[in-house]
Amino acid sequence: MGNKVQAMPTLLAGLRERLGALRPSFGRKGDDDGSHRVPVRDWVPSSSRPAAVHGIDRALIWVVVGLLALGLVMVYSASVALPDNPRFARYASTHFLTRHVVSIVLAFVTALLVLQIPMSVWEKWAPWVFVAALVLLVLVLIPGVGKGVNGARRWIPLGVMNFQPSELAKLGIAMYAASYMVRKMDARENFFRAVTPMAVALAVVGILLLAEPDMGAFMVIAAVALGILFLGGVNGRMFFLSVAVLVGAFVLMIVFSEFRRQRIFAYLDPWNPDYAQGKAYQLTHSLIAFGRGEIFGQGLGGSLEKLHYLPEAHTDFLLAVVGEELGLVGVLSVLAAFFWLTRRIFHIGRQSIALDRVFAGLLVQGIGIWMGGQSFINMGVNLGVLPTKGLTLPLMSYGGSAIVMNLIALAIVLRVDMENRAMMRGGRP
Prior knowledge:
The protein is mostly helical.
């Protein structure tokens, strides 16, 4: 009996320890008097409770910074010899590097400002962002307003940079489609009510982009719009019918356009003497660059194809320079970074929808389609998997408006993630 009495304090201490582990935690919000305490919603042992979620997604930020840094280095490497070309004779060897740095700094400042805007504001103004994109797509076609380069009128000169309205249109269509699906949630099973308004909006954008012409941007925008419709729950048969109609439209564009038809033939047989020095010139030299790079590359700055053999090496075909100088290792690293980034963006979007924030979730997933789809097309073009299209590699290629809109879109993704984390802590977004 005496031993049992002596053991009681030990048993009580153990019981108090176990009850303490099961006790709900409280996060203080305000003064230390505990008057503003937010209880954790579930009662679980402290040893099995996941670590507190707070702050922002640092991994996503570092991947983006890494892609921007690599892009900056490769843009300089790809453009340093351009002043040797009479077309760029008046430029310094650091001309494109300097402008790219200015674009990145401007993009970071703009992204920090966008990060402060709540998603409720974006949801309210989503249709107007789309309207602004349409207005700019019209303005760029007006002589004296839009700037033409190589037969295409796609830019509006702004002094610091040439702004490309199609980049804003990518974000605008993502916002409009996400807003539309939230507003018309009850009409998802009705084909004409659910699809027709989006089809009209997409047709207007397509007509304006094809007038520039910029079929590559239209393909990305169409993929974003259809992807959001599908993720928003539109009937599967209706979705596949919409895809079939869009693919049919692209086929008709190719059939009735001699220029596009020749590009397809050149893509199918790039080494044909009829195409190697014409429509397939960029593709053949891109493939030569990848071949020279082998596993570990020729070393940074060691590319020969950038020496006036590969046109647009600092924009559309930057990955070919990466392949030649950094080899298969460099290309796979870039591919892995974009795969991880796209997957992470989709994860944030799914998380937002699970928290019943449908607009934010669909918008983020639309941005994921934009980033992943455009990077896939650019890489496919560089590697000869897809026909040549005038699309840059997001976050890496030279292009001020593209860098700015990429970082604005990713700032919105970070904002959604921050609001998701706040809700999971029991607070308000």
